[in-house]
Model the fold of this input.
Amino acid sequence: QLMMAISLQIAAKLVLLAELATGPTGWALLLIPAWARLGTLVWSKMLVSLKPGLGASVSNRAGWNVIAGWSVVLAIGALAGAVPSLLAIALIPAVAVYWQWRLGGITGDCHGASIEVTETLLLAACVLG
Done:
């Protein structure tokens, strides 16, 4: 099941990237990964780290002021395409709620999976929106 999920995830991203490449929204290729990675900072601050590792060390280094600053920078950069940015603002806390409900915290694997899902949903929003 895991291999099937990973394969479908990769296929979905490739299709969405190919669709996005034909349009005038090249800015999304920079902003969408940035939004997804900003999510890791938010999730590491909102959730308890379930295992020691890189994710736990990141949560100790990045403060809310850094997160707020990067959020403002990304929001300003996203003025050209509000749909993915608005979705990112709603999606990032929703992912935190999901991991809190499902596991009671977050691990490095959860961070990686969340980045991939966030990128795919934001790409879909950009293509459809």
